[in-house]
Amino acid sequence: MSLSHSVSDQVSGKTVRLAWTDGPTKGSTHEHVFHRDGTVEWRSLDAKHAPVASGHPAAAERAPCMARDITDQVVLVSYLSSGGYTLTVTLNFRNQTTVGVASNEKTWAPVQGTFEVVHQPAVSIGAA
After folding, report:
1. How far apart are CA 97 and CA 74, in angstroms?
2. What is the mean pLDDT of each run of 10 residues along the chain (128 residues)?
């Protein structure tokens, strides 16, 4: 596995739910599935992205990611979405907090929140 697509054992094969307490996504929650192949799949859990009349949930996006151990309790995660946004955050497993930056070619915004590991091992969001 290349360095750019390495996935820490702390998140590899797991689903992590991030609840944002500050930043442009404050008040929203996103679910991230960290696949062992070096990709992350995510979707919003907000009501505005709830299942539509067809009964199908909001589409998930999947992209290459990097998730590296900084310490035995902190993981650095970064990925680029197809919409041009990059999310780079630390996951602190000691207190289940996250802090980082969301950015694109025009904007940069600090973000923070909390997280929980909700599934082990990960199940693809698109497989529902």
Report:
1. 10
2. 71 95 95 94 75 54 94 96 93 98 95 91 55
